[in-house]
Amino acid sequence: MMKKLTIRSSSRTQFIDITSEVIRAIEESKVKSGICVVFVPHTTAGVTINENADPSVRHDIMTTIGKLVPAAANYTHLEGNADSHIKASLVGSSVTLIIENGRPLLGTWQGIYFCEFDGPRTRSVYVKVIED
């Protein structure tokens, strides 16, 4: 089963919690044991798993990535969003989750985040659920 999620970002860089949407896709699949792949088909956005209890963690990650890859530098990419491409490459375009008893095996504090680096935009995220 595959489901397409539509994500709307509201700023240039943003971490959007998509955990509940991914869990809903897994539940709709009725798969009790298997894997779930969450894939972002964009070159200036990504997906990651990290803490979802304290919002300051998202802020710290975005701030640090911004320091590592500043928006304004001597980039040669003509569109003016070279930093967004680099940030997306560092974060990655997919995560894989193990499904057991119909639920993703996430840690107590873990959440799934769509990572926007060139917004605001409307984006797609694909959730593929595969049964054992």
List keywords for this structure.
3-stranded antiparallel β-sheet, 132 residues, alpha+beta, 5-stranded antiparallel β-sheet, elongated
Can you describe what's shown?
By secondary structure, the chain is of the alpha+beta class. It is 27% helix and 39% strand. The chain has 3 helices and 8 strands. It has helices at 19-29, 55-68, 82-91; strands at 2-8, 14-17, 33-39, 45-51, 94-100, 103-104, 110-116, 122-131.
Nutshell version of this structure?
The protein has 132 residues and is an alpha+beta fold. It is built from 3 helices and 8 strands, in the order E-E-H-E-E-H-H-E-E-E-E.
Structural class assignment = alpha+beta
Q: Number of DSSP helices? A: 3
Residues in β-strands, percent:
35-45%
Instruction: Kindly provide the radius of gyration, computed on alpha-carbon positions and rounded to a whole number of angstroms.
Output: 15 Å
Which geometry do the CA atoms define?
elongated
Major sheet: 5 strands, antiparallel
Distance from first to last alpha carbon: 13 Å
Along the chain, the helix and strand elements come as: EEHEEHHEEEE
| Major sheet: arrangement of strands | 1-8-3-5-6
Query: What integer is the average pLDDT?
Result: 97
As a percent range, the share of helical residues equals 25-40%
The low-confidence parts are none
Number of strands: 8
